[in-house]
Write a sequence for this structure.
């Protein structure tokens, strides 16, 4: 965040005339902003979207594109899975908790089928096929993937059903989502201004009636006849805010388009808005899901600490937050060879040895630690069990020489300046289920809404891929409709 930018509010009485006006101003043109603008425009409002970058898209356009949807979508049914909103809620309450916003989560799950239909309405398509492997992002055009629903302990909390929906493209799919959404917003009649960085809210009494921004470097004012909706993203690119609220991400990579500087949150704070979950983050370590499930994930003491078939973001959070570094992925030759070439992401072993004793020395692990861990793992795997961490039997097999160690600190296929760890923030302005921003007394601030990572959504301490994009779209749409009603 530019330290020269002021986020202090401006009085409407001090603005002689506004440069631009609209019924609804949306600040930020990513997934949440696009969804809000689409709904407001379809409801008949004059909508203007302000985007700081040179074009729309934001971090959503650079994302993997997974959309967490369930409740019995056509894609799930085509792949042979029955689901319900209750089953989806049970899984997400466990995976996103503790501390998830259960009111929002309940609405999100109950509205998932309608959200799926909305994605179809804006032009997305999903192939009716399942990627039945372990991956951050499948290198296929399958429309459905597992995101840890079939891993312990979540397979005991809810009936395992895959819910990771992917647009019909390979690997990164966020660009396709935003391409369709931007076109749909334009077709709905909303306008947008790019290269426009909003920084100050305009108040008339206690009500938000506009924003002050800089467009192409020049000051410009915007009046909102009905409401302002902040969808400016999180604060992973703001080192000061990270130090204050989410220090676990300091020194690591940023999953963003480079502009998630917390400006929308700062504008809200400047007028007394409350926040929620500011320490909540997504954490992704460079663990290849297809690799760790076929082997072991150990810490600096040579000890396992989680079932390796769990959603890799949860394994990453467990490692980064609670385990001594460095971490190592231990596989044998058979396990490595079984990984499809396209799922290896150019990741190759850092060390290999015929003996675990030799591998321990290479890795600097305590003598005997890896030998003990593998012997224990193998003894139970031969019986089809994993009593300590409950890895699914599908992935259980004794490890045999020769052995290899993969260094996640190197990132995917090369050296990583961030130590192979990256992430983004999920906490933000406290809002109602309709996106109205609340002040520190719990009272809605007139004329102000928020959605996406500028707000606090469904997440507690956990994260599952696709829940950020889907949450942003779901509550962005609700904010857009509520802003027009207001």
């Amino acid at each position: 965040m530019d330290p020269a930018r002021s986020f202090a509010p401006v009085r409407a009485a001090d603005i002689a005339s506004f440069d631009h006006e609209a019924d609804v101003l949306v600040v930020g043109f990513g997934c949440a902003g696009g969804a809000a603008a689409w709904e407001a425009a379809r409801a008949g409002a004059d909508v203007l979207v302000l985007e700081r970058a040179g074009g729309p898209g934001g971090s959503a356009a650079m994302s993997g594109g997974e959309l967490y949807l369930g409740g019995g979508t056509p894609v799930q049914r085509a792949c042979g899975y029955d689901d319900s909103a209750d089953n989806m809620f049970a899984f997400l309450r466990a995976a996103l908790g503790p501390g998830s916003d259960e009111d929002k989560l309940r609405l999100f799950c109950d509205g998932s089928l309608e959200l799926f239909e909305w994605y179809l309405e804006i032009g997305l398509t999903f192939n009716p096929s399942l990627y039945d492997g372990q991956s951050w992002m499948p290198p296929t055009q399958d429309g459905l993937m597992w995101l840890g629903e079939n891993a312990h302990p979540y397979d005991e909390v809810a009936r395992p059903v895959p819910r990771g929906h992917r647009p019909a493209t390979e690997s990164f799919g966020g660009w396709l989502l935003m391409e369709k959404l931007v076109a749909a917003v334009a077709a709905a009649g909303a306008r947008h201004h790019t290269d426009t960085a909003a920084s100050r809210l305009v108040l008339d009494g206690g009500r938000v009636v506009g924003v002050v921004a800089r467009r192409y470097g020049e000051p410009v004012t915007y009046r909102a006849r009905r409401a302002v909706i902040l969808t400016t993203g999180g604060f992973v690119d703001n080192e000061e805010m990270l130090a204050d609220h989410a220090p676990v991400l300091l020194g690591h990579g940023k999953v963003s388009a480079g502009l998630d500087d917390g400006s929308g949150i700062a504008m809200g704070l400047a007028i007394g808005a409350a926040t929620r979950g500011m320490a909540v983050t997504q954490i992704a370590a460079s663990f290849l899901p297809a690799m760790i499930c076929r082997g072991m994930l150990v810490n600096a003491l040579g000890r396992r600490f989680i079932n390796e078939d769990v959603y890799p973001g949860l394994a990453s959070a467990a490692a980064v937050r609670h385990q001594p570094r460095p971490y190592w992925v231990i596989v044998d030759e058979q396990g490595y060879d079984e990984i499809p070439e396209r799922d290896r992401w150019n990741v190759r072993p850092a060390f290999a040895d015929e003996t675990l004793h030799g591998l321990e020395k290479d890795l600097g692990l305590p003598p005997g630690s890896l030998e003990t861990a593998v012997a224990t793992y193998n003894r139970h795997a031969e019986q089809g069990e994993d009593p300590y961490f409950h890895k699914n039997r599908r992935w259980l097999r004794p490890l045999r020489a020769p052995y290899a160690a993969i260094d996640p600190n190197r990132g995917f296929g090369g050296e990583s300046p961030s130590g192979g760890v990256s992430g983004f923030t999920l906490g933000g302005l406290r809002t109602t289920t309709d996106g109205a921003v609340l002040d520190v007394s719990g009272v809605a601030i007139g004329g102000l809404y928020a959605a996406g990572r500028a707000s606090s959504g469904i997440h507690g301490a956990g994260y599952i891929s696709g829940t950020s994009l889907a949450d942003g779209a779901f509550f962005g749409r609700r904010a857009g409709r509520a802003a027009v009603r207001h």
